[in-house]
Amino acid sequence: MDLTIEGKAFINGLFEKCCIGVDQGRISSIKKISKGDEHLDFGNKLILPAGIDVHVHFRDPGMTHKEDFSTGSLAAAFGGISCVFDMPNTIPRTIDLQVLSDKIITLGKKSYVDFGVYSCVTNSNIKNTGKIGKKCSGFKIYMGSSTNSLQLDTSNLREVFNEVDSTEKPVLIHAEDEQCLEKHKKKERNLVDHLQSRPSECEEKAIRDILESSRNINSKIHICHLSSSEGLKLLKNRPENVSCGITPHHLLLSVKKNLKPQSRYKVNPPLRTSFDREILFEGMRSGFIDMLESDHAPHSLEESDVDFGDAPSGLPGVETMFPLFLYMAKKRILSFQRLISIICEGPAELVGIPKGKIEVGKDADIIVVNLKNECKIKSDYLHSKCGWSPFEDWSAIFPTHVFVRGERIIEENELLGSQSFGRFVGK
Ligand SMILES: [Zn+2]
Question: Which contiguous run of DSSP H or E holds residue 53?
Answer without folding.
Answer: strand 51-56
